[in-house]
């Protein structure tokens, strides 16, 4: 499922925020959920949060042909499931992603089995799944339309807000109360087996430190379970999840593709700033009257990498010729100059290969009035355009950039 991992991570945070708001439409909770779901999305993407209810238009989008009134496609909740809230994310092309969040007062294995059965019957069928560390996910799709695909994620929740740890310090036992923020919590401490028990050898930031745990403390009990060795610590923490009132989170992630995607007019964004460090590497690659619309870079010990996407109103041929001329004026070797379809890729390097990169020129798929320029540059640590060698090396391989009639158009490189 597209962007599956990112969406799950984002919506998991959003679910907790909405839940903490009590389902009452708390403004701050809704705003935070909105911001989380917008992570990685374009500025034209719509986001809407529905605390305690299902989106109004979900039923209509699941049944676009209106011919199945007697047997409609539905996202049926599990038995005894309580609706926490839902959300809708709609992109400019009409792609909808819905999130429905439930809680079930049952343990995770039983809820996972119920979810598998629910989504493996008409009008749904399960097409894949995964399970690890207490989390189970099933991918499903509609038996009636390839436009409907989804994932159901089942995960245990902490059924209590706190748990108790008994420690021995200076020969006296002391009871500490730790807040529980995970199904299987951690103490935030390194433990050693010594003196016939388990002792805190190093303390980090976390609930243990907040509750008053100290280095040298001997851990006596966790959640009422006696601690004799490190294995018993792990067992006691896991058994905190074996409460009398288990709670399991169930999340439906439903993606609905439009039968006829909407093609909206392209709106040119404000230019993205070029990083200052690029001025020491290859500033001449950002030509006049080009507009940076996507920028990504990293400067690390092993070198620097830059990826830019620029737009130009000049023709494909003129842009490619301009870059050939710029590279030659900079005494760089054009090591490859190749065409594929309407696009051209020019690769280049310095004489000692301490800086190298490529320029891809092609039509901009969102608006063919523009030419897209995708630039990738890699430079070794300490490289400076002002001090680089100026002798032009012999190109390894140079090809004439001639477009082949009828060839497939190259897919433009996108920068996240």
How would you classify the helix and strand content by structural class?
Answer: alpha+beta
The major beta sheet can be summarized as:
7 strands, antiparallel
User: Largest sheet, order of strands side by side?
Assistant: 1-2-3-13-6-5-4
How many strands in all?
A: 19
Envelope shape: flat
Can you give the helix content as a percent range?
10-25%
How many structurally independent domains? 3
Mean pLDDT: 86
What is the strand content? 35-45%
| Cα-atom radius of gyration | 29 Å
Q: Give the helices and strands as they follow along the chain.
A: HHEHEEHEEEEEEEHEEHEEEHEEEE
Low-confidence parts: 1-6, 392-416
- Oligomeric assembly: single chain
Counting DSSP H or I runs of 4 or more residues, the number of helices is 7
Intertermini distance: 18 Å
Description:
The protein contains 7 helices and 19 strands. The chain has helices at 4-20, 27-37, 58-62, 108-118, 207-211, 230-239, 316-329; strands spanning 46-51, 82-90, 96-104, 124-132, 135-142, 148-157, 162-169, 172-179, 189-194, 197-203, 218-222, 225-226, 247-256, 291-300, 303-312, 333-340, 343-349, 355-363, 371-379. With 416 residues, the protein is an alpha+beta fold. The protein has a 7-stranded antiparallel β-sheet, sandwiched between helices. Strands 7, 8, 9, 10, 11 and 12 form a 6-stranded antiparallel β-sheet that branches. A hairpin with a 2-residue loop joins strand 14 (291-300) and strand 15 (303-312). The chain has 3 domains: 4-158 and 246-256, no CATH class; 162-239, Pdz3 Domain; 266-416, Protein Transport Mog1p, Chain A.
């Amino acid at each position: 499922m597209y962007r599956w991992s990112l969406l799950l991570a984002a919506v998991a945070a959003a679910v907790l925020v909405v839940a903490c708001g009590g389902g009452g439409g708390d403004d701050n909770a809704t705003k935070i959920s909105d911001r989380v779901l917008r992570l990685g999305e374009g500025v034209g993407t719509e986001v809407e949060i529905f605390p305690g209810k299902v989106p109004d238009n979900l039923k209509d989008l699941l049944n676009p042909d209106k011919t199945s009134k007697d047997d409609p496609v539905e996202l049926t909740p599990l038995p005894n499931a309580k609706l926490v809230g839902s959300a809708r994310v709609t992109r400019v092309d009409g792609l909808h992603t819905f999130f429905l969040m439930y809680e079930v007062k049952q343990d995770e294995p039983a809820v996972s089995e119920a979810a598998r059965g629910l989504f493996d019957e008409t009008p749904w069928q399960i097409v894949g799944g995964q399970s690890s560390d207490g989390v189970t996910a099933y991918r499903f799709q509609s038996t009636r339309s390839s436009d409907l695909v989804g994932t159901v994620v089942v995960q245990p929740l902490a059924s209590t807000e706190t748990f108790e740890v008994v420690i021995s310090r200076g020969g006296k036992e002391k009871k500490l109360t730790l807040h529980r923020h995970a199904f299987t919590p951690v103490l935030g401490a390194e433990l050693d087996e010594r003196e016939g028990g388990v002792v805190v050898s190093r303390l980090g930031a976390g609930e243990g430190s907040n509750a008053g745990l100290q280095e040298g403390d001997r851990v006596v009990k966790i959640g009422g379970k006696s601690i004799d060795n490190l294995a018993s610590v792990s067992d006691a923490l896991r058994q905190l999840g074996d409460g009398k009132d288990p709670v399991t989170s169930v999340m439906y992630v439903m993606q609905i593709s439009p039968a006829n995607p909407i093609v909206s007019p392209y709106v040119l964004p404000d230019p993205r700033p070029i990083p200052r460090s690029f001025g020491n590497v290859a500033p001449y690659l950002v030509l006049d009257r080009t507009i940076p619309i996507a920028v990504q870079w990293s400067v690390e010990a092993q070198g620097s990498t830059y990826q830019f996407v620029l737009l130009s109103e000049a023709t494909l041929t003129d842009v490619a010729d301009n870059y050939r001329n710029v590279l030659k004026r900079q005494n760089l070797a054009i090591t490859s100059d190749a065409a594929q379809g309407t696009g051209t890729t020019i690769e280049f390097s310095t004489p000692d290969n301490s800086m190298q990169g490529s320029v891809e020129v092609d039509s901009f798929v969102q608006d063919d009035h523009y030419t897209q320029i995708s630039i990738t540059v890699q430079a070794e640590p300490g490289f400076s355009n002002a001090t680089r060698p100026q002798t032009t090396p012999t190109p390894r391989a140079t090809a004439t950039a001639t477009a082949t009639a009828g060839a497939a158009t190259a897919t433009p490189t996108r920068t996240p």
